[in-house]
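Title: Comparing notes on inverse folding

I've been comparing how different people in this forum approach sequence design from structure. To keep things fair, I'm posting one structure and asking everyone to reply with a full sequence. Here's the target:
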């Protein structure tokens, strides 16, 4: 790597960037505090947080019920039941082959990045903190130096943007910070020796159960910013620095072989966008992060635990009876308190007036009622009703009624999943643009077809990068850039959805939708229906209709040929049904076919005629080929 000596990015620019980073960090201080607290609630450690807030040690019971956690877990399960799958479509007919190739290799790229695990990780962050952030980068070290797309989950605590914006792309700068070992940094960048330690950027941390030592690590800052270009466009540029030392600057990077500035007039990424995609749960004005389920359900969870503590405390007192004992009762208290001692000595006579049990007042039913109300409030607030988890009440037993309740109860989950599908679409677009920019050399992919078989294909950006297609009237070159649309649907479906799909297939079959003779009316009905796999069903019906029409046409042609042959031979060429038990032509039992003797007679009659016809059609070699 060669850095331009007359660099645009130096120590002074890095110091200014660090000042902007600290300003951005101060702007998201409330978000960072909420994220750290949400993590405590997620781990059922909220009593520690409450004790720290109040400054008092509470000797009372501290139950930590998992009602809130159960809501998060159920929503996460819904998301993974509807794992996304992308279909790439061309906008012009000439790009069909390229769209098909990209659509085939895109799942392979995501699989290499273990995207399902990343998707799960970001969904947990989305539910807990309000946003899951994906980072879509180009990593030149992957594939043995060939480079490939690198998709990673990004922690909200390590990402900084301009305060007050709703879209991350509107930020003037974006900073992504991460910790790296000092020895590895010094090995990769010798210019850092003696300069590490005492970071000027203080990154917020979660409260870990284990001891995490960061004393031998330094904060590495990835600085992304948008700089204006000569043609008016904004180019995305990238700088990496530690402290005051610049490790890399895209504006100042020169090609090692040619010495030319590679990215100064082009930008770090051709798509010109920050490589971060936010998947927000509940949007919030002035922040791209939003807020999550914990923010709206921790209050009912708190009172569920407080009321549960009151019930447990009452139960504990009721389980251990207490007594009023007179001073002159003469009871041996040591023996009385020892439950293992079968005898208790008493001095003098035993009088019930000298010892009486402490009467526990009966707990008011309002306590249990309020506890149940708070539990129902949490379920309603988080849209985690009983039907969402497969249980029903009120005597509902019909399968169709249960299905309707579950579908109605899952509409909030479908809305959350739809937002994740939109984020997944943006991720796919960034991947396509990175392929367009960096896939200069062909690379091999294993493609899995619909039938489960796989094949191998080679792909490069030759078909999808911008190419010159001519010039205008004044000679200015014209360029064409293939554009694709990405449509996302659920690749994985819940078992209940698959059962419903199978029941619909059996119902369509029972109604005769796959009967070729009723194809026209079946297609009319299918046009008005909406379900998963509708296009495949319509294709099957159309194929059956086409096959029926073809068979009918072939039957008509056979009848015409039989009629023509009858005119030529004067014999009836109809098909005779053999009598029961009479062998067919070819020796098979009766049941359909041409009678063997009739077939032999027809053959004897037709053969001489065909021989005469062939003789008349033979060219006369002596007369020049006349007929």
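Reply #1:
Here's my take.
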């Amino acid at each position: 790597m060669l850095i331009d000596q007359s660099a645009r990015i130096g120590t002074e620019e890095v110091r200014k960037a660090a000042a902007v980073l600290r300003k951005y960090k101060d702007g998201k201080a409330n978000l960072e505090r909420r994220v750290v607290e949400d993590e405590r609630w997620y781990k059922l450690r909220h009593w520690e947080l409450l004790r720290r807030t109040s400054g008092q040690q509470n000797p009372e019971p501290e139950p930590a019920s998992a009602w809130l956690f159960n809501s998060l877990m159920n929503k996460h399960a819904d998301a993974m039941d509807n794992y996304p799958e992308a279909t790439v479509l061309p906008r012009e007919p000439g790009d069909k082959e390229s769209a098909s190739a990209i659509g085939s290799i895109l799942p392979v790229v995501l699989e290499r990045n273990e995207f399902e695990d990343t998707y799960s990780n970001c969904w947990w962050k989305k539910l807990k903190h309000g946003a899951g952030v994906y980072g879509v980068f180009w990593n030149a070290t992957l594939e043995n130096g060939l480079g490939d797309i690198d998709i990673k989950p990004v922690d909200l605590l390590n990402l900084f943007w301009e305060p007050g914006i709703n879209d991350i792309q509107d930020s003037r700068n974006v900073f992504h910070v991460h910790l790296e070992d000092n020895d590895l940094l010094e090995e990769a960048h010798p210019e850092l020796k003696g300069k590490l330690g005492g970071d000027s950027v203080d990154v917020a941390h979660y409260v870990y159960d284990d001891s995490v030592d960061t004393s031998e690590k330094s904060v590495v800052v990835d600085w992304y910013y948008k700089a204006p270009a000569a043609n008016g466009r904004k180019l995305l540029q990238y700088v990496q620095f530690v402290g005051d030392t610049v490790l890399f600057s895209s504006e100042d990077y020169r090609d090692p072989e040619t010495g030319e500035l590679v990215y100064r007039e082009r930008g770090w990424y051709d798509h010109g966008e920050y490589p971060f995609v936010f998947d927000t749960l509940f949007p919030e004005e002035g922040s791209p992060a939003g807020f999550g389920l914990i923010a709206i359900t921790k209050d009912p969870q708190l009172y569920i635990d407080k009321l549960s503590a009151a019930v447990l405390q009452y139960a504990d007192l009721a389980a251990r009876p207490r007594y009023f004992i007179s001073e002159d009762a003469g009871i041996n208290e040591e023996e009385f308190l020892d439950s293992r001692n079968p005898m208790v000595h008493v001095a003098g006579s035993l009088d019930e007036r000298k010892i009486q049990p402490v009467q526990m007042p009966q707990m008011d039913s309002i306590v249990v009622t309020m506890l149940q109300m708070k539990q129902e409030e949490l379920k309603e607030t988080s849209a985690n009703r009983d039907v969402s988890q497969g249980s029903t009440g009120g005597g509902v037993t019909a399968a169709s009624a249960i299905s309707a309740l579950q579908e109605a109860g899952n509409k909030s989950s479908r809305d959350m999943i739809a937002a994740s599908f939109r984020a997944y679409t943006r991720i796919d677009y960034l991947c396509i643009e990175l392929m367009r920019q960096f896939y200069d050399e062909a690379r091999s992919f294993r493609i899995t077809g619909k039938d489960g078989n796989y094949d191998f294909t080679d792909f490069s950006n030759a078909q999808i990068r911008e190419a010159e297609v001519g010039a205008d009237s004044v000679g200015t070159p014209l360029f064409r850039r293939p554009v694709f649309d990405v449509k996302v649907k659920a690749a994985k479906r819940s078992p209940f959805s698959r059962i419903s799909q199978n029941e619909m297939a059996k119902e369509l079959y029972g109604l005769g939708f796959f009967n070729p003779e009723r194809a026209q009316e079946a297609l009319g009905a299918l046009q008005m229906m909406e379900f998963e796999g509708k296009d495949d069903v319509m294709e099957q019906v159309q194929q059956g209709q086409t096959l029926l029409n073809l068979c009918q046409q072939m039957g008509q042609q056979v009848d015409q040929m039989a009629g023509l042959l009858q005119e030529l031979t004067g014999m009836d060429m109809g098909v005779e049904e053999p009598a029961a038990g009479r062998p067919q032509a070819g020796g098979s039992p009766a049941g359909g076919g041409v009678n063997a003797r009739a077939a032999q007679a027809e053959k004897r009659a037709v053969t001489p005629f065909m021989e005469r016809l062939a003789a008349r059609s033979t060219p006369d070699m002596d007369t020049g080929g006349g007929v």
